[in-house]
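Suppose you are handed a protein chain with no further information: no name, no annotation, nothing but its sequence. What can you learn? This example shows the usual starting point.
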Amino acid sequence: MTFDGVKKYQTGFFIGRFQPFHKGHLHLIKKSFRYIDTMIIGIGSVGVVDRDNFLTYQERKKMLEVVIKKEGWNDKVSKIVPLKDFHNDKLWLDNSLKAAGRVDVVIGNNEWTNRIFEAAGYPILRLGFYKRYLYEGKKVRRLMLEGGGWENRLPKYIVPLLYGYIANNEAINQ
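A reasonable first move is to predict its three-dimensional structure. Written in structure tokens, the prediction is:
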């Protein structure tokens, strides 16, 4: 189906680690809604805890729930699902699809993820990065670990959540 010359999909699957959720993620989700009716969000690397993955699944899910509520997307995001890491692309794909259910298109800029879904026959929406020089997750995490300057890279309404998560996080405060 097309709408104003744009192909429209019913259900998009947006996968990310959200370590943390930043304005680049926000931009990509907003842009995605031009192409999809509803979204399923997959939170990747569930169960991995280290300096690059210091937020738990529950913390990241809570962040996303706050974003969904503040942005008025309750009717657009159908569910948030945990995605475990597997060192086998087929197992990872099968687990991701089992968690998500029916999806029509995959949304994202991670070429590893895109390659796996494309090989399985799924279309990919590559909508591009938004100010990656500011909003790349690795840069945001580095600023968080160094103690400042990250707050303006996140939606302001989730910054208080992150302060609490950082204060109580052993992986960061070692």
